[in-house]
Amino acid sequence: IASESYVGIIVDRTSQRPVLMVSAAGGIDIEEVAARTPEKIHRLAVDPRYGLLAHQALGLALKLYHDIAQARTAADIMQRLYTAFYAVGASLAEINPLVTTRDGAVAALDAKIVIDDNELDRRPDIAALRDSSADAPSEVTAREAGLTFIKLEGSVGCCVNGAGLAMATMDLVKYYGGEPANFLDIGGSSNPQKVVSALRIITADPSVRAILFNIFGGITRGDDVANGIVQATKALPLKVPLVIRLTGTNEELGVQILTQAGFSALTDMDEAVKQAVARAKAA
Prior knowledge:
Layout: E1 3-12, E2 17-23, H1 30-36, E3 41-45, H2 54-64, H3 68-87, E4 90-100, E5 106-108, E6 111-115, H4 124-127, H5 137-144, E7 148-151, E8 156-160, H6 163-175, E9 182-185, H7 192-203, E10 210-217, H8 222-235, E11 242-248, H9 251-260, H10 269-282
Helix pairs in contact: 2-3, 7-8, 8-9
């Protein structure tokens, strides 16, 4: 091998476009190059209406190779990589390293493609290739239950309806001195079984010291969530404190269901988060 370079495409949320990045410093993590010598990375935001044009690819390839034949070969590889990136709805596609051999040939030795999960519903052929054994068991269980779940390192287990409210809940947990154990969004469905599945996932995490339900009823009905909590706690007796904030659609009925089952529900989000953090610290 005479040289090693890096070629990659990511989705840049700032420009809302795919960005092609190339660097002559290949063979190592591009993050390390970006941190230590960012000037060695050349970038191009690609207009998705037209794709990666030939002259754009060649311009970047000439940043890697002075030999025009090698640059043209590299440009062709870049265009093929962009075609693959776009075709499968990837969030990342990279070749590392892109090498030149001692006889002047250009070849891709290793490559990686990351498919955006949001694309999988439209591409069942790709979804079928997923190796669930490589994922965390809790994330596999959540995906099968139709939940959005990400494991974190804290001690406050969070079950929330809506991604925005879930992010705000985690921010408040940190604001009041705690650390969220997960991101878990049960979505807008009025399905008690989702709540049962969510609580099963949270209680399986040994690092959880308190559980916080934060439900703002819109499409999600408070009585359905309350029934789910009652069903789940009967099937899975809790070993950690549970704090519930419930407001919105069918709030009164939901609170009544919880009260009859021996639970109390708050309506103030800040107070609920404060209690969950305090109980997690005391556990």
